[in-house]
Each structure stands twice: as C-alpha cells, then as structure tokens.
## 1
Amino acid sequence: MGRAVWSALGAASWEPDQQTTARTCAEIAVTLYEGHTRDQGTPYIEHPMAVVAILREELGVVCPTALMTGLLHDVLEINPGARDLIGRRLGVKFADRLADITPDHRLEQRAKGPGDRQVWREKTAALEPVPLLIRLADRIHNTRDLANSPDLARRARFLDDLAVFYLPLAEARRTDSPQLAAAYRVLRHECDTHQEEKRHGADPVLNGPNGQDWRPGIPPNDPQRHG
C-alpha cells in the first residue's frame, strides 16, 4: 500500500527533501487509515488517495505540501489523538493545517451537536485557497461515491449540501486561483449531472433501479417524489 500511496502523490518527481517528507506522510497515512472503512464498505485510504488524484489530475495541483495535506485530510477526523504524532513527524504547522480542515466536534471527540453543521460551514468558508481546495476535492469525490453508500439519508444530505453550500462557495471563491476555478467547474458538472438524472428519475443516489425515490420520510404518493 505504501507504494500505491507514493504513486498517488506523484512523489517520484519531487525534490529529495520533499520525497523524504512524502515517505513519512505515506507511512502515517497507511498507519492511521488502516483498519478503517468508509460508509461504502471500502478501505478508508482509498478515499484520500482519490482526493489526491482529483487534486493532481483535475484541479492542476502540483504543490507537494498541498497534495500531502490532501492525503491526510481525514486522519484527525477518524483519529483526533494523532495530532501530536503528526506534529512531531511532519511539524506543528502541518498538524495545525489538518486541524483547520477538520470539523470541531471531531477534534473534540464528541457527538455532532445541533449547531455544529453551521459552525463547520463557517469554518470552511473562512479557509485560505489551498485548504479550501482540498475540502472541495473531498466533496467532489464524496459526491461521485454517493451511489455506493447504503445510508440514504446521507445521500440526500450530501446532495443538499452540494447545492446549498459547497457549489455557491466554490462559485464565490473561483477567482481566488485557477485551481479553485477548476474545482467550481467540476462541482458544477457534478451538481448538474445529478439534477438532470433526478429529472429523468435515473439518479443512482436518490432513485432505485426502477426510478423509485429513496429519500427517507417521504410517503410513496407524496408530490415531492414527482415534482
């Protein structure tokens, strides 16, 4: 797995000191993501590797620090206690950067409360361009992977967040950098694709194989299913 992570980062072309940091980063990623699975049932590390691929191949990111941050963007979410370890191995600034893109309730190791969603949105909206780009790349992969999630409420919530929060934020910040402009275009495409599929009753996230609306809490004959 270490070689796969190394390849995902594209670290073979980096400077020697950057490669040294990349080896440490890859080791931490393999160690901290090991044993964790996503809601989709896949090994957790496949998600951050996909985020790195999006950053590199679709958004034009070449900065090693940004790519390594993308690789570790979820480690404090699944293991908040690893912040000190990351600080010792990769530096306090790197650990702080990861904390900046991690929901507060995760850092505080508590259940998500009523106001945490809004706090997270405010925290995300205030991010600098590079950490924001990582969060948008994360959202791109999450959106693409939603059809594999068995949690129907999660599917609907993610698509709602995309349309109501992430896409408007990406649009507002698209002039900050060419990479954020690219992220907006990709998110716009993802959103448009889901909306088009939804109109035709073929969205694999919200609709079953027979066009059935899977959104929870909506009666079968409710007009919302057909509107």
Note: The CA atoms of residues 158 and 164 lie 10 Å apart.
## 2
Amino acid sequence: MGVYATITDLTTVISRLSDLPVQPLLPALSKIRTILDKDKSKLQQQIKQAVEINTLVALGLGTVFFTLASFLMHVMLGDVVPSEYILAFRIEIIIATLYSLYAVGYYVLFSVNAVVESLLIHLFSSLLSIVLIFIFSKK
C-alpha cells in the first residue's frame, strides 16, 4: 500500500501542473454565450494556447518522471527498490500523462455546458486507462 500511495502521489503532480494553463480561461469560458463572433476568435486562440501548454507540460513532466523514475523511487522509498516497483511507477506515469492531456477539454466542455460530450470523453479515457492498466499488468 505504501508503494501504491507513493506512486499515485508522485504521478498526481503531472495532472495538477498540467491543469494550470486552463484556469485563466474559466471566467471567459463561462461567458461564451454572450461573446460576439470577433471575441470568440480571441477565445479560440486562448484555448489553443492552453491546449499547447497543457500538452507541453503533461508530456514534459511525463518524460522527466519516466527518465528519473528509478531516482525518484529511491528518494521516496529508500535504497532497496525492486525493479517491479520502478516498472509500476513508469506504467503509472504513462497512464497519468495520457490522462492529463484531457485537462483543457474537461474544463472547456463543462464551461460551455457540453456535459454529455465531456461524459463520453471521460468514459473513453477511463476505459483507455483500464485497458492500459490491463495490458501493462501482464508485465
């Protein structure tokens, strides 16, 4: 349980930091129905930038964590860390990184009241996570 808690605590950093580019958009998104067409293009540009930053942060952190997985596990758990723990950590890094790419879509869809679309995407990404867990658990 301690290893699982350590792995999930470390990988939640990827999700939390990749959500940050979206937060400045939320006030503008909540008013999307009242925005004129010329302002919508500015908002679309801001959303595009948020997607790009979110992708860069998620993939960047995922890459750094994946590369430093052995070091991070040794820091968190001590000197004796079985290779299975490092592999499990790397698998969770892949899953958390892919899941973090959905941050902008999650907030944008809820802000424009597209709850059904958000639900479908969330279900798909959750199923993808379960499939990845199943595939990687064979290792």
Note: The CA atoms of residues 48 and 67 lie 28 Å apart.
## 3
Amino acid sequence: MNASKSPESPESNAVTLPGRPCSAAAALHVVGEKWALLAVREIFFGNHRFEAIARNTGAPRDRVAARLRALEQAGVVERRPYNERPPRYEYHLTASGRDLAPVIRALLDWGDRWVNEEPPVVLVHEPGNAGGGEPGDGSGDEDGHTGEGTRGGRGGNTGEGEHSDEHGHGRAHDLDAAWVCRTCGEEIAMNTLTADVRAPGWDRAGPLPEPLPSPPSEPIPAE
C-alpha cells in the first residue's frame, strides 16, 4: 500500500477497486474489516498496548497483529516505544486515525438505536479539552486507559447533577452530536442529500453505457 495521505505526506493513497469509484469503497478497503475498526476503537478509547487491544476486541492475537500492521502501513496508527529492553511498543492514532472518530461514534449511535437495548458505552464530551492528542491522553494510567469516562449506561458516570446547567454546558456530559453542514450551518437530514457523481463514466444508477462505435467513413471518390 502506498504512503498515507497527510499534510506531511501528500502522496495519494488511492487504490483501484472493482465497482463504482467511491471514497467510501476506498475507505472500507483500508479500515472496513471488523477487527481493524475494533482495534481503532480500542486505541480511541485509550488502550494503546497490544495485550489490551487483543483482549478487548476479542480477536485472535495473530489477527489483531495482522490488522495493526496493515493499519500502520496505511498510516492510520503508529507505534511508539515505551520499553527498550526488551523492545515494546504502544499503538497510537495518527491524524488519519483520529479522523475516524465520527465513524466510531456513528456505529455506537446506530448500535444503541437498533441493536442494543441499553448502550454499553457512552461517549462523554468535555468542553475545552480539545487538544491535538487522542482521547484519554494525559489523564489515563500507564496503559492509556481513561478510566470511567466512556463506561456505563446512558448517562455514563457523570451522574445526575454534575452538569453546570440543564444543557451540560461547561462540565463533562454525554455526547449528543449532530451532523451539521459547514457551509450553511444547518443540521443535515438524509432526505436533504443527493449524490453528485463525478467519476468519469458513472452516474447515480451505475456505469454509463459504452458509446456506440462510429460507422466507418466511406472513401471520398476521386474526381
């Protein structure tokens, strides 16, 4: 796989895939496998060491190792040494990996609504804590765990009455995110969206028919 696409590495990470040219397909080619996304979830939650990632995903160790190698090659995660003898490494999200946070949140929201009766995990929003690192950095234990911030049922562990006002402004509170258009500032509903297909040779219905070959031109008779 090519080098990751980032401000420091402008090379394209594009691949040629069968079917419709689409960035969703390209993204799934990199992170669409179950164990890959669950490994990203664990690092997002603050679990950086292999043992914790393997245990919490429930995947076989060799499968987790393979997915972490692939994610590292794709520029989604990076290894950082935490012990020299013997050499030991932690896994951290790169800028590319941190940009998967909305994907993890969307999967959590969908699972809460359509699969689980009660949410096993609740994301907690801490206003003013928008540093450049990963969730849990700076406040976890030596393994990067964030403690109680993302555990528990609806309402997490913030408890009733811990918010500074009824809207939770200023204090940690359960995340209630919205999908908002940056251009117009309006919240987005699915029935307001259409796909503008710009890949050559495709429209929304699928591949465009091949143009009919032009009939052979008749020779011009000599005068």
Note: Residues 2 and 13 are 5 Å apart (CA to CA).
## 4
Amino acid sequence: MYLNCHSYFSLRFGTFSETALLELAKENKVNHIALTDINNTSGCLNFVRKAKENGIQPVVGIDFRNHHQPLYIGIAKNNEGYKELNDYLSHHLHYKLDFPSQAPTFNNAYIIYPFEQAHKLNKQNFDPHEYIGIAIKDINKLKFSKIRIHTHKLVVLQPVTFRSKKDFNAHRLLRAIDNNVLLSKLPIKQQACFSEKMIPLDTLVEKYSDFKHILKNTQTLIKSCSIDFNFSKNKPSLNQRTYTGDLQKDQILLQKLCQEGLAYRYKKPDKQVLDRIEKELKMITQMQFVSYFLINWRIITYARQKGYYYVGRGSGANSIVAYILRITDVDPIELDLYFERFINTHRTSPPDFDIDFSWKDRQDITQFIFDTFDNVALMGTYITFQYKGVVRELGKVFGLPKFEIDKLSTGAYQPNDLDHISKLVLLYGKLIEGMPNYVSIHSSGILISDAPLHYYSATNLPPKGFPTVQYDMLIAEDLGLYKFDILGQRGLAKIKDALNIIKYNQPDHPPIDIHNIKDFKTDPNVNALIREARCMGCFYVESPAMRMLLSKLKTDNYLGLVAASSIIRPGVAKSGMMREYILREHDPSRKDKSHPIMLDLMKNTHGIMVYQEDVIKVAHIFAKLTLDEADILRRGMSGKYRSRKEFKDVQTKFFENCTKEGYETSLIAEIWDQVASFAGYAFPKGHSASYAIESYQSLFLKAYFPLEYLVATLNNGGGFYRPEIYLHEAKMLGATILPPCINTSHYDHILRNTTIFLGFSLLRDLDTKTSELILENRVQKGPYKSLENFIERVAISVEQLSILIKIDAFRFTFKNVHELLWEAHFKLNGFHPEQPLQPVLFTEKKSTYTLPKFDRSPLEIAFQQIESFGFPLCGYYPLLSNPIKDKNGAKDLSRYLNKTITIYGYLISVKNTKTHNGNAMVFGTFLDQYGALFDTVMFPPVAAKYTLRYKGIYYMIGKVVSEFEFLSIELSKIIKQDYIQDPRYA
C-alpha cells in the first residue's frame, strides 16, 4: 500500500537504508511496498533481493523531482517498465535537463501525480497508466476538491521518509548541507513534511475508510506490479555472451588465436604446455567464459596497434591462454601458478583481469571500449559521509565558528566541556556517518553486458563523459554482472617515455625490446640493483619499506622479487609472517617448524602463506573445505564481503573440519590467524608476478639508461618521492641540472647528453597558456634573440615574464637578472596580454639608460628556486644558518653499529604508524650531507616527544642497529635546523 518510499539513496534527503525500509514494513505488517528514491535507482537491486528474503513483494520506481520539488512518481509494472523509467531518468541526468511537469507515456510503468501537483496542472484527462496520489494529509482537502470525481484514478500515496523525530532532524540537517545554508535558513520547500512516516496497515486502512475505492485502486495497482532479478547461486552471467555473435564461432576463434600465438610464447612447447592449454580451453568453454577472453583480447590488440603499453595482472595471470593471447606477460608454467584460483567449476564468476595502461592512454582505451561494444557503462561506487567531514558540515549548518568546528572534527575536546549545540553536532555526525553522499565512479571497473544496462539501473554522466551505473561492484556481481578492470598508472608511461628519450638522446643506440623479460631476469646489472635496493624511481620497489625488505632478503632474482611484492603487503606483515619469511630465507632449517601439510603446500615460500592461492590451498587441503567454500574464504579477504553471512559460515566450518581432522586447537587458531590476516591485502601470485615484470622493465632502464629513465619519471608525475629527490638521484648519477631556458626548455623536462633542462611545467606560478605561447612561437619563428625580441613576439604580462626572468630563463642574454627585470618593467608598463600584438614593420630607435651594477649571490639564486619550484638545485645543506658540527654520513653507520651516532639528515619520507597498543611510531628516510640515503625509527616514547613531519634538515642522535644486515638508527633525539634568512628580504 506504500507507493512512495525513500531510502538514503534519495541523496542528502533520505535517512535510512533500503534494508531498514523492509524491516519497517515487516514491523507494520506491510507485504507490498515500493522503493521510489528521488531521481536515483541505486537501492533498487538490493531492495528486490532483500525483499524476497523478508517475504515482501517488492515494487520499484522513481520519484521524479526538479530541485527537490515533487512532479510525479513512476512505478514499474515489470522489468521492462523499470528499464523505461531508467531510460527516461538517464536522459535527463546525462543532459542536465529539468523534467517536464507532465510525464510521457510509458508502456510498462504507471505515473502517479501527487494531489498538489495534480491540482497545479489542472489535469482533466488521465491516460490508463496515470493516477492521482492521495496522502493522509490530503484526505480532508480531497472532500472539497473536484479531483475526487476521478474515483478510479485515486490511489494511496503516503510518502515514507522518516521513522522517528531523529530521522526528521537528520533529514533537515542533510537538506541544509545540500543547500549550503544555516539550518535556521533552510527553506520549507526544501524539506519533507514530518507526516511522511509509515503506520501499521490496519491504521492506514482506517484513515481511508471514507474512500474505500482509493484502497481498492491501490491494491489493484500494486498487485499488478512484479519485478524480478536472479540472485541465485547458479545464476547465469549477464555479461556479453558472445564476441562474434555465435558461441560456436567464439570457440573456434579462441582456439585459432591460441594456435597462432603459441610460437611467440614457446619456441618448442612441451607436453606440459600443450596439456595445460587443452585443459584451460576445455574449462573456459565449459564455464562459458570464451567471450570474456575474446573481449579482453580485442582490447589489448587495439592497445598494441596504437603502441600503448599495458600490464595484464590479477588472477588472470594464472592462465596460459591469457599468456598466449598476450593479455598478460606472466608465464604460469614457469611460476607453477594455480589455475583453479582463476577458473574452477565451483566458481560462476568470470576470471579477473586487471589491465593497466599508461595514464595517458587509458582515456582512449575506455573510449574504444564504448565505441566497440553495445551495452557499456562505468561501474559506480558510493562516496559516503565520513565522520570528520560530516562534523565539519554540521558545524557550519549550526553556525559554529571555525575554531569550534576544528576542535570537534579533530577530537581535541573534553566531552564535559561541550555545549548543547556541539553535542548535537557529534550526535548527528554519528547518525549520518556512512550514509551515501553521492554516486561516483569505480576506480577501474567497466561493465559490458548482454542486455542494455538500464534494465538494472539508471546511469549518470560524470565529468569524464562516460555513462556510469548507479550501483556498486558487490551488487553487480551478485546480479551476475562482472566488471572489466581498466586502470591507468604512471609506471607504464615512464617506461614508454624513457624509450622515446633514449631515441632522441642516443639516436645511434639499437632499438630496445622492452618486452624481452627473459633476458632482463638474468641480467646481473639489473639483479644487482634489486640486491642492493638501488631502485629509486622503479615502480613499487622504490619505497623505503620495499628497499628495507630487499636489503634484508638480499633478493637478486625474479622469483624472489615476486615473493617480496606479496610478503610486504600488510596482511603478511601483520601476522608476523614477513619476519618469519626473512628468517627462513636466511636459515632454511627454520621451515621445519611448519606443519608438514603447510610445508608441502607452500614449498617455494618456506611453508608460509604469501599469496591468495595459498589461502585456497590451505582451506581446501588442510581444512577440507570444498573449492567453492575455499573461494568464498578468498573473497572474504575483501573488507565488505568479510561481514557477510556466507563468510561467517565458512569460518565456522573451517574450525569444525580442522577439529575433525584431529589438529590441535592452538594450531588451528594459528593457521586461521594467518588466513584472517590476509583480509583485503593478499595478492594472487600472478598479480605479484605481473608487478615484478614491470619492475624488471623499469630496473633495466634504470641500470642502463638511468638519466633517460629519471627524466621520464619526472615527466610522469614522479612516484613515491618528491621531484627534487629524483633530480638529486640524477645528479648523483652524473647529471647536470639547469633551470628552465626560454630557447632550450620544453613544457616537460628534456635531456641533452647528460644535462637535464628543467621544463616550464615545474614553475609553480607560470600559466600553462603562457608556456604554450612561448613554445608555439619558438617553433614557428625560431629561437628568441633577446628579451626585447621575446617581448615583441609573445603576449605576456610583466608578472609572468618576471617569473621567467627570476629563474634565469634568459641567461643566454648574459645580462644580470635584475637588469632584465628593469628592462621588462620598462617595456611592458601598462601592457595586458589580452591586447593583440601589432606586427613590427620598422625598428624603433630605442631609448638608452644606464643602470647600476647588480650582484646576485648563489644564496639569492637558491631562495628564488625554492620560491619558483619548491626546492633549490644546490640542496638545502648550504642554506643552514649554523655550520654542520660533524661529518658523519650513511657510509659511517657500520662503524657505529650498536653505538650512538650523531648525524644530519634531510627528510625525504616519513611513515606514521601505530604499535599493537595503539601508540604512535615513526619511520623516517633521510639524505645525508653527501647525498646518500639512511633510515631511522622513532619508538613511541621518542615519537611522543619529537615531531618528524615536515621536510627539512634535522640533527639527530641515535643508536645504529642492524637487522639482517640492514642498518638503521633508533633515534633518541632530533633537532630541526634553521635556514639562513632569505637575502632578498634581509
């Protein structure tokens, strides 16, 4: 009987979930109910699924509104009607159109005009699918309205938006946030009426006792509606079923592609390879995943045709068919990858391919997918209100001053000191926390479905310009829609750009096959970088944590790097297994501590779970779970799925089965802790291998073309560290670094032999448009001959020109910067860049003037560089106000082992973490005065006393310690050093 119910997916309006709505219906003995969120269908799929579990007949629709002013409610008669409503809503969302005051004709959907809206329209005639909604508050008005004559068109339309006064208050706060006004200034028309609540069914019937025909009409309408989606365990996939349009042709094409690609991957394929191919093809066909492989193959084929680099990773790297099709570069035979992790008869979802492209190429790949396939949309996700953020918003709504808001959002208060308003902010902050704020785009997911995607929800059109569904990945998978993951990363762009820089900087060098991974894996120079942890700039292996791990492991091979990329993940580290792995790497006899079954399952990782596949092996063989149950356990490692009933049931069965097998309780608990610690973090082995391959490509370039690679790194946004650190690394490797030059520099940084000319992009305050004008004019008319010639050719303001002069971009004139600034201000006095430049027909006689002699010290240059691009090219050590007291550096750590050292360090990286007790602990990475790296740790007592947050030079005292020959300093005292005063303003 309730045809207009709102969940919190009526964004910044509704106050409870779609499942809470169903609980409310059960409490009030309502067995038919419609979810009609405002201009949104995010909750519909889960509402339909959960309604059936609660014994309620679900109805879905949309409450169409302009600027939150009600127009009409669309109710789907069936799945076709739901699609019609989604088509209509999506069209208006995509083009940002207001809805017309009267709805169009729908073939499979009803339209209900609220009583007030029907009056406003003065509508006399109603089509068969049109009705007038009467709320409880409208009943008395109806008795005196001419609308009452439309007896067969009147239905109950009692909106449901609140459960309680608290909900109503939360609603008003959400509306104030949405309208960006004080609560006291919130317009009445922007909020719902407090009467929008659900009452028991018998009470509702009593309210309409004078208009029994309204009740009858409503019953007839609601019972004629039926919506159904298949959420069963063995549901069919809703992804595009065929690639060619014919299942048989798909199978033939996949076999043909495998035959053609085999020679590229295996020169002389043995029986193991051929048997594996046959086994996989049979399974892929049986599970009806052929089109999924072919669609991925089509995407990467297009990428190769365009010269785009990509990395196929995820569990898809466990497949030899994927390897042969060149979707991945990971050889599953070499790594003994567990195919059943990827596809098994117990798993209904398609395999998981994550394909990384350069961040520069991803947009074109996405456009290609939308152009090539029929039913495509980006995956949605919900951005929820976070506590700190919502407290700030509520503080503004209540009119609190900024300092009060800051205090509440950071938690810097005593509860007993808070006034009534502040307590309300915190109370409602907790209530609103976790509610959806807006629908956004999943980081990588793309849906390619067999049927139009509007069968499942409406779509938004975010700024990226691609339709995006209004539900998230979990609901999509439960429905049978499985995403294709297309990601963008900078590491691939760095590799591609490095090769281009090598071409122009070393034109005589033979072409480089960057996909020649087999040679890279055995290259001693590349492996030396890994063993010695000299990996700055090289994908994920450059971080301080990875550098520390590689130093401890002394890894110098591909398989070791594959394992390292997984054991550094928080899950393994948290369980204590990372340390145990290192111990066993150095002392193989320690693996005898493992249970024989664990050791047999994980021979190559010393009996320690490292990969997602290990979880499946342990669950299936050690705990005797079925492969299906083991896969539920694996999926349970993602945070959202972990709370589901299916995961809890499997967890219970894990303990029960292990007990039946006769394992000791302590052993069962230990193994489960290892499994549980993987929550949301563990990699599939193939995924780690994919990362290792990209790392080897980066390491090869760093080993043989370090300057080219570092320039490419800088031009692609760097990596883990700040740009100045990569420039420092280049300097340590022999580069000369020069500031931007008007006649040499480009927008990005360029390399000439061993000289790096910094690009205009590094200048903080230089407009991109100005850079483009400079470069375009230089291409068309050649180098600039003087400052005067530059001013004649480029429309530039004196402020923008001053930025270039101060950074010494006109040094080719051999004039002092101050002299050039005088000249610039003299020439451009009163000029605005918007004025058109007039062609110079005759050279004017120039006024002459005599300027005093100017001096410019190196310190002045350094401070100008800090102002212009954030750091001085000379480094910060020459700027210290007090001279350095001692000469200790990273090279001296071994001399001070287990002794106290005093040392200076420039902070380049800091990681704040917490101990098991929740106490703060800090890891810092520094550059010493000679340019070498060293690492430090501050344990809780020291971390509580000193702050290590901001970049700068610190004087430190601490004890040098060694763990697996990795030297670091346990700090006891730090003192941040001051710089001299800027001489320009002294």
Note: The chain has a mean pLDDT of 91.
